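[User] Could I get a sequence and structure tokens?

[Assistant]
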Amino acid sequence: MDTAGKPLSPSASKPFDFCDDSVPKRVVLSPDQQRYCLEALKVFKDKRFSAPEKIRQEFMILQATRMRASEMKTRCSVALDSVNISKNRYTDVLPFDNNRVVLDPCKDYRPSASGYINASFIKISENLSQFIATQGPLPLTFEDFWEMIIQHRCPVIVMLTQLVDNYKTVKCGDYFQADGGPRRFGNICIVTKWIKTSQTSLILRCLEVNHIESKEPPLCVLHIQYPDWPDHGVPKDTLAVREILKQTSSVPPSLGPIVVHCSAGLSELGWCRPWSNTSFAMMPLLMNLKTSFQILMQKRVHNCNFQLAGSSIGY
């Protein structure tokens, strides 16, 4: 039975607990995966050193694929509904009607619940698990966000942003810090089991989430915050990125989709694809890299309604 895009029942997955003293397993690549990565590295190096102008041209083509207002009005009609407008952090970063995350109103205790959240299911290929891409939660949508986590049994949240940037601009609401005791969001309560900082400056929290009146056991969620991720760029090294990959590689795909967000919910997702419940979700793109990489990238950017990079440096 196809359960893509449908909330999982609590009994659909076995309980999973994150231990604060556990050491992430080393990600072991298959021979094919190693070959794909080496081919990709060669292509990227060739472009960077032999044809840097071509990289800029490809980035400009990606910029040109941004959706026009008329198309957005048709394909993002639910997000643009007057009832939901205030739930969008940015007016031009909206989920498509056909792959947006829909909250089940039958499981939502709020009379005013509309079932809308600015979040989308992203599926890399038919053979690989999907993940959820969403914006940094707003105070207005904190409860919606946790409702989504509970309904879809999401085991991991990857946060690629600070709460406030260096210019004192709010990039994301504080929806997760409950270090001083239980924190309540409407009918939902979160509790911090443990918190630690990794050697790569990642902040790891194990949270228990549940409806206050529920008799079901709480959902255990690993929250991974990467506060040093540049707001309009990419990290200078891959140490923290590889650490996230290690932390998530041991999570069984059957538990539910991994949630990834920055502030807007768009620019970082090109780099987050390896975390879509599998270590190498980008492999289908790399298999025929030399002949089809650029075409596939352009197609996926347009279909997913977000840019993979906000600058030529990021691309």
The beta strands are 100-102, 116-122, 131-134, 156-159, 183-185, 188-197, 203-211, 219-225, 259-261. The radius of gyration is 19 Å.
